[in-house]
Amino acid sequence: MKLRSLLFVPGDRPERFAKAAASGADALILDCEDSVVATRKPFAREAIAEWLAAGPSVPSYVRINPLGSDSVAADLAAVLPHRPAGLVLPKAEGAASIERLLAAAGEACPPILPIATETPAALFQLGSYAAVTRHLVGLSWGAEDLPAAIGASAAREPDGSYTAPFAMVRALALFGAHAAGVAAIETVYPDTGDADGLAAYVARGRRDGFTGMLAIHPNQIPAINSGFTPSDSEIAAAKAIVAAFAANPEAGALKLDGRMIDRPHLEQARRLLARAEV
User: Fold this and answer.
1) Cα(17)–Cα(22) distance, rounded to whole angstroms?
2) In whole angstroms, what is the distance from residue 254 CA to residue 267 CA?
3) Residue 59 gets which letter from DSSP?
4) Which of 50, 234, 245, 275 is least surrounded by CB atoms within 10 angstroms?
5) What average pLDDT does range 86-97 have in this prediction?
6) What's residue 257's pLDDT?
7) φ, ψ for residue 160 (rounded to 5)?
8) pTM of the predicted model, to two decimals?
């Protein structure tokens, strides 16, 4: 399943579910956590359960409340019988959090997408997710909760780039995902009206090794899908690299179209073709 774009939708706004599903997003994340105030969480659970029971046309994940909260048991009881595509776990703190969720959810637990950088302690567990790879659909990060947790006044510079501490957090999350062998999902771009900024953000994410991205508005989906889809020229170049090494299986390095390529180029080409599903 492609996971270029995952669109958040507040769980207490069921009138938005169908529009979100029609946005072209690869998956929806129906939210029971931050976007839903406490008094509306029961309604959100009911609305999400009804949506899942109807058999949505788009894979639909559910962001539950954090482990240890008063709401997580009710979240799981409401949604698991209707087989969501996966669970998004906020404030995850490494493999131990995944094990706790598996224990709480039981055999009905679907694949999990942890939001892996929302507490200071979480950063020191990013390397542990490799122990629970088979239970993960990917790994993402966030730059909203962590600044509040440490008293930072902002996570971004005036030009939108991340400040040094949060650039480090982003990098650690990226490497944590790849160390676990799962999809590396870039965090949201908060300015829904800044098309140029979004395009640049998506391009940086793909350049750096992210394979998909979280979204907060349907109008962000086309740019995200386009940015995380290999182009025809990239696919052709990757196929040429794979073909060159297939024709020379004993070679460690080759010359192709005037440039030297070696085994890391082959690995990159294979990864690109796998993402393109060709």
Assistant:
1) 9
2) 14
3) -
4) 50
5) 98
6) 82
7) 95, -15
8) 0.89
Q: Is the pLDDT of residue 106 over 70?
A: yes
pLDDT tops 70 at residue 275:
yes
User: Is residue 253 classed as helix, strand or coil in its secondary structure?
Assistant: strand
- Which residue shows structure tokens 């969501």? 84
pLDDT-wise least confident of 11-20, 124-133, 142-151, 266-275: 266-275
pLDDT of residue 247: 82
Per-residue three-class SS string for the chain: CCCCEEEEEECCCHHHHHHHHCCCCCEEEEECCCCCCHHHHHHHHHHHHHHHHCCCCCCEEEECCCCCCCCHHHHHHHHHHHCCCEEEECCCCCHHHHHHHHHHHHHHCCCEEEECCCCHHHHCCHHHHHHHHHHECEEECCCCHHHHHHCCCCCECCCCCECHHHHHHHHHHHHHHHHHCCEEEECCCCCCCCHHHHHHHHHHHHHHCCCEEEECCHHHHHHHHHHCCCCHHHHHHHHHHHHHHHHCCCCCEEEECCEEEEHHHHHHHHHHHHHHCC
Q: Report the C-alpha gap between 41 and 271 in whole angstroms.
A: 40
Q: How far is CA 33 from CA 30, 54, 183, 249, in A?
A: 9, 22, 22, 51
Q: How confident is the model at residue 278 (pLDDT cuts 50, 70, 90)?
A: low
For the segment 1-22, what is each residue's pLDDT rounded down to a tens digit? 789 999 999 999 999 999 999 9
Instruction: Tell me how crowded residue 204 is: count the other CB atoms within 10 A of its CB.
Output: 14
**Identity of the amino acid at 158:** P
